[in-house]
Design a protein that fits this description.
It is a single chain. This protein has helices at 11-23, 107-120, 144-157, 168-174, 191-199, 214-225, 254-261, 270-274, 280-290, 316-332; strands at residues 2-5, 27-32, 37-42, 59-63, 83-85, 88-90, 96-100, 124-126, 160-164, 180-183, 204-207, 232-236, 266-268, 294-298. It has 337 residues and is an alpha/beta fold. It folds into 2 domains: 2-63, 2-Layer Sandwich (Alpha-Beta Plaits); 83-332, Alpha-Beta Barrel (TIM Barrel), CATH 3.20.20. A hairpin with a 2-residue loop joins strand 5 and strand 6. Helix 2 packs parallel to helix 3. The protein is elongated, with a radius of gyration of 21 Å. 46% of the residues are buried.
Length: 337
């Protein structure tokens, strides 16, 4: 349920409403827009039986929220959110580009990549220290050693750094080194991991599950936010369909659909969506045109020798050309790159 206050509602009236809600053991989520304030109610509404908010001082109307996700809901927070991360942010005014290798392989590889993507225009360095692989015999990542290299790369370049986490142990290690946690597609509905990420105290990037609906994805975000972490970013990375021409099928329509359902920033990962480097640039442009707040692009100094996802990784030269090609698209969308 949300309570929409009148434009001229006093702070006293707003606080009185909030006090009544909290007095019944429910949570209050205040969203103060340019013209009106929205009081969001999170919890068991039956506890409010007997209280008629519609006739309370300063109230315009009361609207039921039928969706199971509340904190992530645009009805609770009509304005698009900006998520601060390190010395940068993800949101409606900028086009964020996260770039780097699928897996951190060595100190030299990561630092070389960090300098290259920073020069080309990226504001984030991505890199996997923990790798959930389909085969148990595939490279699983350098773990905390890789995290130390990420921190060193951040100090050397000023880039914000993001790394996927796969367990509570990984979260406890990662928060010491990175600016943002990533929950991968395979763990989108690992609810215990989502709760721990919500408690970690730093922003979280949540990738869409392999076959997840948008509402399931938003409910997964709600798990993180319900633990007190409002800084969540969604990442569309393709879903599993019958098509085999690409690794996954990029659901570009998810971007405008999410725009109507949630205030959270949305980025797109065309690298994992396609698995083919030649398809990454055109789909990156599509994502910007659809309204995405950013992109996650895999970049490697020598993709042919990459320990993970070489066929979808761009070379330094290809990534630099892509960022240059993206600038007019960003300007058309009113975003800074």
């Amino acid at each position: 349920m949300i309570i929409i206050m009148k434009p001229n509602a006093s702070q006293e009236a707003i606080q009185k409403i909030a006090g009544q809600i909290e007095g019944k053991g429910l949570q209050v989520h205040l969203s103060e827009g340019h013209e009106v304030t929205i009081v969001g109610v999170v919890g068991d509404k039956s506890r409010l039986h007997g209280i008629n908010f519609e006739i309370a001082d300063g109230v315009d109307k009361v609207v039921a929220v039928t969706e199971s996700y509340k904190l992530a809901n645009r009805k609770f927070h009509p304005d698009a959110s900006t998520v601060p991360v390190g010395n940068t942010s993800i949101g409606p005014d900028t086009l964020t580009i996260m770039a780097g290798p699928c897996a951190v392989e060595s100190r030299e590889q990561l630092l070389e990549t960090a300098h290259a993507v920073k020069k080309a225009g990226a504001s984030f360095l991505r890199g996997g220290a923990y790798k959930p692989r389909t085969s148990p015999y595939s490279f699983q990542g350098l773990e905390e050693e890789g995290l130390k290299y990420m921190k060193e790369a951040r100090e050397a370049t000023g880039l914000a750094v993001i790394c996927e986490v796969t367990s509570q142990h990984a979260i406890e290690a990662a928060v010491k080194y990175v600016d943002m946690l990533q929950i991968g597609a395979r763990n989108m509905q690992n609810f215990e991991l989502l709760k721990e990420a919500g408690k970690a105290g730093i922003p979280v990037l949540l990738k869409r599950g392999l076959s997840a609906t948008i509402d399931e994805w938003l409910n997964a975000a709600e798990y993180i936010m319900s633990e007190g972490n409002e800084y969540v970013v969604l990442c569309e990375r393709g879903i599993r369909t019958y098509e085999t021409s690409t690794r996954n099928t990029l659901d570009i329509s998810a971007v405008p659909v999410l725009r109507g359902k949630t205030h959270l920033p949305v980025i797109v990962d065309p690298s994992h969506a396609t698995g083919v480097r030649a398809y990454v640039p055109p789909l990156a442009k599509c994502a910007i045109a659809a309204g995405a707040d950013g992109l996650m692009i895999e970049v490697h100094p020598n993709p042919a020798c990459a320990l993970s996802d070489g066929p979808q990784s761009l070379t330094f030269g290809q990534f630099e050309q892509l960022t240059e090609d993206l600038r007019p698209y960003a300007r058309l969308e009113g975003r800074n790159l």
